[in-house]
From TrEMBL:
It holds the Pfam family LysR_substrate. Belongs to the LysR transcriptional regulatory family. This is LysR family transcriptional regulator. SUPFAM superfamilies: Periplasmic binding protein-like II, Winged helix' DNA-binding domain. The keyword Transcription applies. The keyword DNA-binding applies. Residues 26-83 form the HTH lysR-type domain. InterPro entries: LTTR, LysR_HTH_N, LysR_subst-bd, WH-like_DNA-bd_sf, WH_DNA-bd_sf. Gene3D superfamilies: Periplasmic binding protein-like II, Winged helix-like DNA-binding domain superfamily/Winged helix DNA-binding domain. Keywords: DNA-binding, Transcription, Transcription regulation. It comes from Burkholderia cepacia. One of its GO terms (molecular function) is DNA-binding transcription factor activity.
Length: 200
């Protein structure tokens, strides 16, 4: 009742309830290292991607496991494989990073306007284009996007001719030669393992 003290005889149960309500706040930087390590197949490569030392990335992964309360990786041969918990964490990590970056872009780019010319490789352009354009439009409602889906060679030619501002292409030797030219910035965003496909 109002004006009466709440009995404190159950101090232990109150402490347990408080602990049960506690929730970890996962660090987005650590989640980036997790995603990079899985995508690149190596935490050493992930360290280069996120501009941290290998020991720092290892510490980030250990911290994520401590917060999750369960291992995210298990040894598999000479490498590591995701546990079920790690697989779940990876899915949420991608979503959290996307939301974080979308929020940052929206806050920083409120007043951006104009046109952006984007080229996407036809192998995956149609699969990711709607989602990418949707997130970009929400973050930058005043910016208009001119998107082109084409073959690698066509996109590289247009990038070289300054007909595109941005292109997502396969990193073959021809692409590497062009992307190394002065004035063109490039970044490896993922490595896709080769797979053989044949009739059963």
């Amino acid at each position: 009742m109002p004006g009466q003290d709440i009995p404190r005889g159950g101090g232990e149960s109150l402490a347990l309830a408080d602990a049960a309500l506690a929730r970890p706040n996962f660090d987005v930087a650590a989640l980036r290292s997790l995603v990079a390590g899985v995508d690149l197949g190596s935490f050493a490569k992930a360290a280069d991607r996120v501009a941290r030392s290998s020991s720092a990335v290892s510490a980030q992964i250990r911290k994520l496991e401590e917060q999750a309360g369960t291992p995210l990786f298990v040894k598999s041969g000479r490498g590591l494989a995701l546990t079920d918990a790690g697989d779940a964490m990876l899915r949420y990590a991608r979503r959290m990073i996307e939301l974080n970056d979308e929020a940052a872009a929206a806050v920083r780019g409120v007043n951006l306007d104009g046109w952006v010319r984007v080229g996407l490789q036809e192998d995956f352009g149609e699969a990711i284009l709607p989602d990418v354009l949707g997130r970009f439009a929400r973050a930058h409602p005043k910016v208009r996007i001119e998107a082109r889906v084409a073959r690698n060679a066509d996109l590289l030619d247009r990038l070289d001719a300054n007909q595109l501002d941005l292109a997502l292409v396969w990193g073959d030797p021809v692409s590497a030669a062009l992307l190394s030219r002065p004035g063109i910035d490039s970044e490896v965003i993922a490595q896709v393992p080769m797979q053989w496909v044949g009739a059963a």
